[in-house]
Write a structure and sequence with these properties.
Elements lengths: L11 E5 L8 H5 L20 E4 L4 H11 L4 E6 L15 H11 L3 E5 L23 E4 L12 E3 L23 H16 L2 H20 L7 E7 L2 E6 L4 H9 L6 E2 L3 E4 L7 H15 L2
Bound molecules: pyridoxal-5'-phosphate (PLP).
Amino acid sequence: YIKKKIPKDQAKIIVCKDNFHGRTITIVGFSTDISHGRYFGNFGPYTPGFVTITYGDAEELENIILELGPENVAGFLFEPMQGEAGVIIPGKGFLKKAREICTKYNVLMIADEIQTGLGRTGKLFACDHENVKPDMYLLGKALGGGVYPVSAVVTTTEIIGPDVIIPGVHGSTFGGNPLGSAVAMKALDLIVGENLSDHSAEMGEYFLAGLRKIAAKKTKIPIIDVRGKGLLIAIELDGKARPYTEGMKDRGILAKETHSTTIRFAPPLVITKEQIDWALKIIEEVFVG
Ligand SMILES: Cc1ncc(COP(=O)(O)O)c(C=O)c1O
């Protein structure tokens, strides 16, 4: 309302189908995951003003902006790869086109890189795969080095300067935590200093190749897809994944299913080839026997 001078109460934010941005009340209000009553459906009241498009459809993004009136659209919030939806990778060129559209209509491009950011997909940010710079990153998880709860909204002072949030006005009980900030600084030092993004890309390719070999065998349940970037990887099964995630858990591998038929692997960025070989052996035992 301050920067774009959107008429009072008219602001719209565009989001994507099958998004997962957490479980806070505004966020669950625009979740499309009706299979999870606990995220949607059972809580309210919700925040109005969110409009959903198909994930990865740049043409629909532009059409919706035009339909809503570009002067009313404040932002486009998206995951550069959808994590919880099952490691969904948008078609090549989507991020670039979305960037062009957001720039053309003065719409904030907000990348939720809480799962994908800081080396996870083989680049520092998943948006880097298309050399795209969003206007705002949402970061968490790896920002705390996996040991401390820290999250951040990262943008420029041009976007959120003192004219938008007066210094000292915005806060929360745990916001600005000094230990959290120190852990985040160190985690960033390590991720960048030890080049964990490149390591993630290399180990990810190795892991993917191993999983594809297993998928090509006669497995107890058909593995219908193996996909991923860096160390954010999924295998999709033709049936319920739970017995297999439990089988892996019993042998020392924690990998959660997303929805019911996809298993997501997101191992530590420092994983070695030897550790991947160990994991592949167990995965093969579970799926092939
Ligand atoms: C992509 C993504 N966005 C947002 C969140 C939630 O963040 P928070 O728990 O801080 O609300 C998650 C948590 O799993 C996530 O994976």
